[in-house]
Amino acid sequence: KIMADAVETMAYAGETPWHGLGVQVEDDLTPQEMLVAAGLDWTVSKRHLFTHADPDVNASDEIIGVENYSVLVLDSDNKTFGPCGPRFVPSQNSEAFEFFKKFTDAGHMKMETAGSLKGGEQVWGLANVSKDFTLPGDDRVLGYLLVNVSHKWGKSNEIRFTPIRVVCNNTLTMALSDKRTAGFKMPHVKALDHQVFASAEQALGLAGNRMEEFKQSAEFLSGKQFSKDTVVNYIADLFQPELLVAQAEIEKMSNVKAIATRQSMVDEFKRIPSLVHQAIEEQPGANLKSSKGTWWGAMNAVTFVVDHKWGHDRDASLHNAWFGGRASLKQKAMTKAIEYANVA
């Protein structure tokens, strides 16, 4: 059943997820079994869209069809997901989860979590893959494959790799393709068939290389210390770049004056950059060898705030962790951290 909350249904295997949502299931479910356990075994269909001939509905019972536009409907209870255009091809949850099957059958992946968001508009599955590494101080990073099915016109389906830092359950980010995009997008212009999955597999074939690159980047960041002034600039660069316009003037000042000016920048931080600044010292794992005073710790302060502090509740936090502009912000945080570390 689709419920009104942002997170309607969810199932997970193993330990309780960081967002604390869902019902626990066995850790050996197939993708289709996970689909059922998470309450996602429903279908959608594209249906004709109609309107009243008169803008005053009470004045006329005449109904006319809307040319070239349809509406996407949940078949079980006729809930509508909104309009869609003539080229829109609906995607079924079961079709998307078939992508996991080849890999789970071969033992290369293990289904871990599945659920829906925003009234069922977004359906997702998460599988653990055999790609992980450990940084100094037993700072473990695990690799996951995320499949996202969108039941909304204008939004693509997507497959992406999502590393997760165990100590704080930060969902990190990595580039998947040569274009350095976060994932493989599948627009709703054709069915989720073998040809689409073959293209996705070709892109995901780069994942081993990308995960190795991510590991190298993490090791690089964990080995580079930041100074107090550069980490303040880093946060401002990401969230309030207008505060950096006086940076040239700061460089002309004495050290004492520069420190005072840097503190004034911190005082001018809005809520989110202030939380990031605090998280550098207070986030889980802040004192690990890989994190304390390093650019890896600075970057994770951003991901920690996005995943766990930004949003009104756990439902919103889960959405922010994987989708939309805030997910892109985490990728930008990684890129910026590398830029700053390169000149450290």
Please provide a brief summary of the model:
The protein is α+β, with helices and mostly antiparallel strands and 344 residues long. The chain has helices at 31-37, 93-105, 194-204, 207-222, 228-239, 247-252, 255-267, 271-282, 295-308, 314-322, 324-342; strands at residues 7-13, 23-25, 44-52, 63-74, 80-84, 109-117, 122-135, 139-150, 157-161, 164-165, 170-171, 184-186.
SSE series? EEHEEEHEEEEEEEHHHHHHHHH
SS class: alpha+beta
Strand content: 15-25%
What's the average pLDDT? Answer: 82
Distance between the termini: 53 Å
* Biggest sheet architecture: 9 strands, mixed
Q: Segments where pLDDT lies below 50 for 5+ residues? A: 1-7, 175-182
Helix content: 25-40%
Radius of gyration: 23 Å
Shape: globular
Please describe what this structure looks like.
- Helix 5 runs parallel beside helix 7, helix 5 (228-239) packs antiparallel against helix 11 (324-342) and helix 10 packs across helix 11.
- The N and C termini lie far apart (53 Å).
- The model is unreliable at 1-7 and 175-182 (pLDDT under 50).
- The longest helix has 19 residues, at 324-342.
- The protein is 38% helix and 24% strand.
- With 344 residues, it is of the alpha+beta class.
Topology:
Elements: E1 7-13, E2 23-25, H1 31-37, E3 44-52, E4 63-74, E5 80-84, H2 93-105, E6 109-117, E7 122-135, E8 139-150, E9 157-161, E10 164-165, E11 170-171, E12 184-186, H3 194-204, H4 207-222, H5 228-239, H6 247-252, H7 255-267, H8 271-282, H9 295-308, H10 314-322, H11 324-342
Parallel strand pairs: 1-2
Antiparallel strand pairs: 1-6, 3-4, 4-5, 6-7, 7-8, 8-9, 8-10, 9-12, 10-11
Helix pairs in contact: 5-7, 5-8, 5-11, 8-9, 9-10, 9-11, 10-11
